[in-house]
TrEMBL record:
It comes from the Eukaryota. This is Transposase. It comes from Cirrhinus molitorella.
Length: 320
């Protein structure tokens, strides 16, 4: 058999995925990793085996690098590992990697997860994990990979017809004050009450809406009749006034007692002064006796419903 004919046979074997070493044919069926700066293709690995002969690994590496000047060069160690693998397994391919395949890399799983959240966007990752058998970590990875975000529920109140004008008037007044004194907001005692429900209602941290776009999820309803604790607190610059706990429902008489017995005595012990006292338009704040008390304590210097400075209604953004 001529050398040319032998070379032609070797090329045909290479195309069929079969390698010839020492007169024996091998077909690669198992894979194993090889340490190179760029992974060798199956054809390149077969080529290294074919040109090996009885030469040293350094000579083989130099020969291969000369044949492929455009790819990163291989070392003699790479040749040694490849030939040892071939002698042991009869294959030049990598061994399959062990371990569980990540579900996030599974396109079919990712599509199923996104479809499920699209159908039920308020479903939590914990519940989805229990139903699908996919770990919460993998679920979060899928959602993050496709840029889905857990949007919070926003609680809004309905605006009346004259509310926009009153809000505009207050904004113009506040803008003028800030132009006169950039530290004006640090001289306002912002106050408010909050209900803390025993069953966790109105806790927006427990509500998420998974989507790739902001759904502007809002809920104008409020739950009544559940057990709750009301707390009053004030913020003045970097100081905190309170908190003060309120028993039962707050009414004008109870609010006046809170201001007279708790809030203002505590202000007397604080260093410094503030210019304005702010409260929202809740019914207990609107009582005649409450407004008369504030007029006496802060003549022309308090912000509230029908006060010297009219507080725009339904403006939760006023309280920091």
């Amino acid at each position: 058999m001529s050398v040319a004919h032998l070379q032609c046979c070797r090329e045909e074997l290479e195309l069929a995925g079969i390698v010839l070493v020492s007169g024996k044919m091998y077909h690669p069926t198992i894979t194993e990793s090889i340490d190179t700066s760029k992974r060798l293709t199956r054809e390149e690995r077969i080529e290294i085996v074919l040109i090996s002969g009885e030469r040293s690994n350094r000579v083989i590496a130099a020969d291969f690098n000369a044949r492929h000047p455009t790819r990163p060069p291989i070392s003699h160690a790479t040749v040694s590992k490849l030939l040892a693998k071939f002698r042991e397994t009869g294959s030049v391919l990598d061994l399959p990697k062990c371990g569980r395949m990540k579900t996030v890399t599974n396109e079919e799983t990712s599509v199923a997860v996104l479809a499920s959240f699209s159908k039920s966007p308020q479903r939590s990752t914990r519940r989805m994990s229990l139903e699908s058998g996919i770990s919460r970590t993998s679920l979060r990875r899928i959602l993050a990979t496709h840029k889905w975000h857990p949007y919070k529920l926003q609680l809004l109140q309905h605006l009346n017809d004259d509310d926009p004008d009153r809000r505009t008037e207050f904004a113009e007044w506040a803008k003028q004050k800030l132009e006169q004194d950039p530290q004006f907001t640090q001289k306002i005692l912002f106050s408010d009450e909050a209900n803390f429900y025993v069953n966790g209602e109105v806790n927006k941290q427990n509500h998420r809406y998974w989507s790739d776009t902001n759904p502007h999820w809002i809920d104008p309803s409020k739950t009544v009749g559940t057990k709750k604790v009301m707390v009053w607190c004030g913020i003045w610059g970097t100081k905190i006034v309170g908190p003060f706990f309120i028993n039962g429902n707050l009414k004008a008489t109870g609010y006046l007692k809170l201001l007279h017995d708790d809030v203002f005595p505590s202000l007397c012990t604080e260093a410094g002064t503030f210019q304005f006292f702010q409260q929202d338009g809740a019914p207990p704040h609107y009582g005649c006796q409450v407004r008369a008390f504030l007029d006496e304590q802060f003549p022309e210097k308090w912000i509230g419903r029908r006060g010297p400075v009219e507080r725009p209604p339904r403006s939760p953004d006023l309280t920091p």
